[in-house]
């Protein structure tokens, strides 16, 4: 029961516009604005996710180069 109350208190994301997935006729400015805002929010979330993945890949490439340089430095030190 505590878990259910916690979920209600801290919802993740904005959720769905139509949570029951049943067809219904919705019109009016308020609903249209909600739908546009929701789609914009989804697009922003997708862009942020792609940016995080690109940053992770770039960080991995830099780390790989650094490890190679560190390995070369260590072999040069031991060769002396």
3D architecture notes:
The chain contains 2 helices and no strands. The model has no long low-confidence stretch (mean pLDDT 82). It is mainly α and 80 residues long. It is 74% helix and 0% strand.
Can you give keywords for this protein?
mainly alpha; 74% helix; 2 helices; 80 residues; elongated
Provide the helix percentage.
over 70%
What is the helix/strand order?
Answer: HH
Cα Rg:
25 Å
Beta-strand residue fraction? under 5%
Question: Main sheet?
Answer: none
* Poorly predicted segments: none
Number of strands: 0
What would you say about this model in short?
The protein has helices spanning 2-9, 29-79. It is mainly alpha-helical and 80 residues long.
Please describe the topology of this protein.
Blueprint: H1 2-9, H2 29-79
